[in-house]
Structure prediction request, 330 residues.
Amino acid sequence: MHTERAGHSAEGSERGNGRHHESGPYVELDREEWARLAGTLSVPFTDDVIDSVRGLGDPVDAREVREVYLPLSRLLSMYVHAAGVLHDATDRFLGGTASRTPYVIGVAGSVAVGKSTTSRLLRELLAAWPEHPRVSLVTTDGFLLPNAELERRGLMQRKGFPESYDRRALLRFVIDVKSGHERVEAPVYSHLRYDIVPDATTVVERPDVLILEGLNVLQPGPRTDGRSALAVSDFFDFSVYVDAAEGDVKQWYVDRFQRLRETAFRNPESYFRTYGDLATDEAARTAGSIWDSINGPNLRRNILPTRGRATLVLRKSPDHSVRWVRLRKI
Prediction:
């Protein structure tokens, strides 16, 4: 099933002619036009690095990195530089000596869509630019409520939904980063154990750029007393939404589940170790059921509606390659 919101299927079919298209407040470029923006730049690392950051089941290769992610890193580097110029001008205007705070990039998208690979590639590429060599990456998984608390609240079957996160802790983390604190800590999540790791933290020490990756990072603030509260995305300088047709993402999820069944699920310490013994057909049915009951509804109700809040959208084809890019105009 490849159901999409009205208009997007038609938009995709119009691309592929090497031209860009302007639609309202956005500029849309197909893969060919976007790839040209890399110019004469070359990928600043080896295939071994690509192999190390590639997510399970994500076939991204050197060509994809050069044609999609290299131009994106070039654009982001320009934005980071422009933010520095604006900071200096503002500081002179105010007559102060305020230090510059990290440039924060949010990366959102569905489970299994490839946002983790996108985030890791951007970390490597942005760190290669001499203007901002210190790039940190934090995932919002660490801000999920511990399993014991999710069980207490009856939310274990809604893990990954907005209400399953410690929103206050996540917001406080981003505010501390944008406040220029020297040292900010984030909790750590274990995908093997499917839970928060007690007493473990990831330390962020005033990077030039912070990438914050997660399912719901573009969620608006909840309404209280008729007013909207602060949202994590209020403190983003730039945001990326990794997009694809739901039918494709579901298939990628099932494929990834099958690979995990043959690898991580067979680890005795894995939370999902009982899945390691499933037959191939049974594993496919189980993964499909999990998607239909948890990941699909979360995508449709909570994640996909935030796509319009992103600065840039990367739209993927069924083979996982990026087909077109939509950038919000300035």
Notes: Confidence is low (pLDDT under 50) at residues 1-16. Residues 102-315 form a domain with the Rossmann fold fold (CATH 3.40.50.300).
